Amino acid sequence: MEKQNGKHGLYVVLSVVLAICLWVYVSYIDTSTDSTYTIRNVPVEFTGLDTLEGRGLMITDGAEQTITLNVRTSWSAALRLSAETMSVTVDVSSIESPGTYTTGYRINYPTGVSSNSVSITGSTVQNVTYTVARRTERSVEVQGVFRGEVADGYQREEFSFSPATILVSGEESAVNQVDHALVTITRDEPLSSTFTGEMPFQLIGLDGEVLDLEELNLETDVSTVQVTLPVVQLKEVELTVDLVPGGGATADNAQVTIEPETITVSGSESDLAGISTISLGEVSLGDIFSQDTFTFDIQLSSGLENVSGVTQATVTVEITGLTTRTLEVDNIQWINAPEGCTVDLVSQVRQVQIRGEEEAVNAVVASQISIVADLTDATIGTQNVPARVYLNGTSDVGVVGADGYYRVVVNIQRE
Predict the structure, then answer these.
(1) Domain total for the chain?
(2) Co-location of 259 and 300 in the same domain
(3) What CATH number did the domain enclosing 256 receive?
(4) What is the DSSP secondary-structure string of 47-108?
(5) Concatenated DSSP letters for 273-320?
(6) What is residue 109's three-state secondary structure?
């Protein structure tokens, strides 16, 4: 056991002696001998870029480059030199016009290594070559494409984007190649609801091909856009009119034809849920003698869209199942005569048309009808003024025409 302990102690002593010898040797080599080392992929950094950009210029070719440095230095200094700890700097602040430039550079050494302890060998390139081009920027439109299908009974609307345009900047010739920005939405399942989301985009060239931003050294002010692709429900809805009873006729006596009968509208499910018909407006049956045709604008409530594209409807109303009769009425009166004036009736008799069930119509006599002219807006002289017809003694028969209004001629003179 003692012999083994002695050998172990001898090994320790020999290790210490060898370490000291190696340290002395390295120290001697380090301080007395320089060697040549090759450092590859040293990055080139440009300063004065703000000044260059202020002149409307930018570096294109050579903006991202590295160089190889052959250095002569001590072994200990060389241990600290690498592409990660070194760089070279090129000042471009004095450049005022586009072109290709070859200029010198300044080497940046890591902390602890003095430039005086390193020399660059003659095989190292002493200059950096790069290209300066005119810089420009331009706004391009954002467009969208949907690759997929929408569900049955639904319709896809137009894309909307925020922002709607994208600012593209870079070398003038490269920027001028850009036509628009394109957002692509792809769905495997049919779409039945509105799509919204933050989406990336591609720049599309004038030839319709996708452009490589890195290759062209292009920049954009945003990297994504907010996209909305509305998907709405479709529904076929019947067109109707509201029939106002009059002239002895009710909805039971009216045969209505509407062209078109229906239209297709789009909207959200909640907006369409309670809609089964769309009313075009009112038709007064008292204004229709036998048959009349009306044109209505098709108006929809907010949130709905007329997918059919038809903006007007033609409504034909025919009165059926009733008897009409014309009576000569001489019971003509007036109201609201101008103060200090005399009124003479030029119209002594007016024909009045009545309508209703045959038996009720035949029972009406002319004395049941009176005509009252309203002179509220009348002036001095002979003129045609509105008059209303009243039928007394029956509710089963009505007066036909102008909602019961007729006209008579009067002569008004000052007293």
Answers:
(1) 5
(2) yes
(3) 2.170.120.40
(4) E-HHHHHHTTEEE-TTSS-EEEEEEEE-HHHHTT-STTT-EEEEE-TT--S-EEEEEE-EEE
(5) HT-SEEEEEEEEGGG-SSEEEEEEE----TT-EESS---EEEEEEEE-
(6) coil
Residue 338: which CATH number? 2.170.120.30
In a domain, 55, yes or no: yes
Same domain, 77 and 156: no
**Contacts of 332 by beta carbon, 8 Å cutoff, 6+ apart:** 345, 347, 348, 349, 350, 370, 371, 372, 373, 387, 408
Nearest to 331 by CA among 343, 348, 344, 346: 348
* Number of Cβ within a 10 Å radius of residue 161: 19
Nearest of 255, 228, 246, 257 to residue 321 by alpha carbon: 255
Distance CA 154, CA 233 (A): 4
193: which strand partners?
A: none
Quick one: DSSP state of residue 249? B
Name residue 297's beta-bridge partners: 312
Mean pLDDT for 77-83 is: 93
Q: What average pLDDT does the segment 374-389 reach?
A: 92
Q: Phi and psi dihedrals of 166, rounded to 5?
A: -125, 135
- Is 84:42 a contact under the CB 8 Å cutoff? no
Three-state DSSP class for residue 20: helix
Domain containing 27: what range? 1-33
- Please give the Cα distance from 194 to 197 (Å, whole number): 10
Amino acid identity, residue 231? V
Q: Are the C-beta atoms of 258 and 239 separated by less than 8 Å?
A: yes
Tokens of 214: 């890195």
CA distance 170 to 37: 39
Q: What is the pLDDT of residues 223-237, one digit of tens each?
A: 999 999 999 999 999
Mean pLDDT of 11-30: 55
Residue 133 inside a domain? The answer is no
Q: Measure the CA–CA gap between 90 and 88, rounded to whole angstroms.
A: 7
Question: No. of H helices and E strands in the chain?
Answer: 7, 31
pLDDT digits (tens, 9 = 90+) for 183-200: 999 999 999 989 999 999
C-alpha 369/C-alpha 328 separation (Å) is 9
